Amino acid sequence: MTGEVITLQVGQCGNQVGREFWSQLAKEHGIGQDGLSLQEDSPTAVREDHPVTFFKQNDSNRYTPRALLFDLEPSIINDIRNSFPGFFNERNVWVSQDNLGAGNTWSIGYDYGTENQDQFINMIDREIDATENFEAFQLIHSVAGGTGSGLGSNLLELLADSYHKKLVTTYSVFPSDESEVVVQPYNTMLTLRRLIEDSDASVVFDNNALSNITARILRDSNVSYAQSNQVISTVMSSITNSIRFPSYMFSSLPSIFSTIVPTPDMHFLVPSFTSFTTDFIPEAKNLKRSTGYDVILDLFDANNSMVTHSADDPVYIAIYSLLQGSVEQSDITRGILKTQKRVQFAPWSKSSLHVNIGKKSPYNKTSNSDYVSGLILSNTTAVNSLLKKTCNSFDTIFNRGAFLHKFQNGRVFENGWDEFKESREVVQSVIDEYTYAAQDSYIDDILLEENMLVGNDDGAMDINDDNII
Ligand code: GTP
């Protein structure tokens, strides 16, 4: 049986993205926004899909997300309660009594996490008790505010310390260039350290790339977070497609992530998606009928990348792809061969594009199964653009000692600013590793030991039958 996944959504961005994600999942599994199955099925009926990976099912056929919601102020969570009455488990919602938010300050969010750790462990344990074969956590947040970054960091440490055998993945949103808040580079740097040290894989997005993509899909430059969040939830639903509609390949999250994460530190994954049909974005306008071959090639167009990267051609370390719709095997083979000629792989990597064929939801009656859509999740040096941009913004303010007073009451800063310096060093070491990984000599020095792979042993090395060339 596919193992269950527990989702933690933290702060404004985390909860707003979470709302879109659960709305998408409910639609794909024929579940109403009150949690009741729209099907005539009984609790014992056999479904083709596997909603219980993400939902608990009770005797009255109600599905409840395996989700924990955290925030330091109630407004977003109240909105979610109003639009999904009775959908989430109220015992899984934690909102600080102070109602103050974290004021865009990482250390405030982080300290709330430390103070409430026992309560959080109880919430997580209770949710794990409701699983049969618990497998992974996924955390959704922004790295730039105070709650998603600070409380999110604290939760990542908690998961790594207390549940260290379970896969921890994150969906992490980076700020746009028009940074609204001056201390965002500090929050981002401190959070990046936890993403590196306490998660097994981080799927990263930046708000610039998301706005450009949504403006293109909607043919309207006036886009909102709601639409960017639909783009993120499309990625999340595609990554989890083959564990919710399982077949013999990639039917667990560890099997997907272990395929593209070669060493523990190089675990930043850049998503691309095309084309956005109305299955994913209700107002999508750029619908075009493409073959699997066209979609595979389009996925490598920089305009479809959810992380803006520099003009230098990125070097790919590993790529996972999920295609949905009417796809011919011959198109996939041609697409893989063409990709191998076009894109640059790290010299030591196997130049492999792992292609998985997903299933479309049987509950979406308006879906046109002929349309092909695809996702790639790339482990690539392109992520260095994001990491270096964060370091440059951080260095500019930190070297001048600017705005540090906002953090002075934080417990990790009681003895000075070492936490900032150490985080900067940790991030630099990952930038260096990605740079080094693009070179021939990398493999001479780094032995890819089996025990350096993420995930459990079963998932890590068992993948023989996928579409790899
Ligand atoms: P505090 O407000 O300090 O309590 O922290 P928070 O974590 O709740 O803040 P928030 O999640 O608003 O983080 C701020 C960053 O997230 C900024 O870069 C925003 O642009 C971005 N952001 C906020 N909400 C959303 C959202 O719904 N979607 C996307 N894509 N980005 C968001």
UniProtKB/TrEMBL annotation:
Pfam families for the chain = Tubulin, Tubulin_C
- Main site of residence? cytoplasm
Whether Nucleotide-binding counts among this entry's keywords is yes
Q: Which UniProt keywords apply?
A: Cytoplasm, Cytoskeleton, GTP-binding, Microtubule, Nucleotide-binding
A biological process (GO) of this protein is:
microtubule nucleation
Task: Kindly list the GO molecular function terms attached to this UniProt entry.
Answer: GTP binding
Q: Does the keyword Cytoplasm apply?
A: yes
Question: Residues in domain Tubulin/FtsZ 2-layer sandwich?
Answer: 249-392
- Gene Ontology CC terms: gamma-tubulin complex; microtubule
Q: Where is the Tubulin/FtsZ GTPase domain?
A: 51-247
Q: What SUPFAM superfamilies does the entry give?
A: Tubulin C-terminal domain-like, Tubulin nucleotide-binding domain-like
Where is this protein localized, as stated in its record?
Cytoplasm, Cytoskeleton, Microtubule organizing center
The protein's role, per its UniProt record: Tubulin is the major constituent of microtubules, protein filaments consisting of alpha- and beta-tubulin heterodimers. Gamma-tubulin is a key component of the gamma-tubulin ring complex (gTuRC) which mediates microtubule nucleation. The gTuRC regulates the minus-end nucleation of alpha-beta tubulin heterodimers that grow into microtubule protafilaments, a critical step in centrosome duplication and spindle formation.
Its family remark reads:
Belongs to the tubulin family.
* Name of the protein in its database record: Tubulin gamma chain
Query: What lineage is on file?
Result: Eukaryota, Fungi, Dikarya, Ascomycota, Saccharomycotina
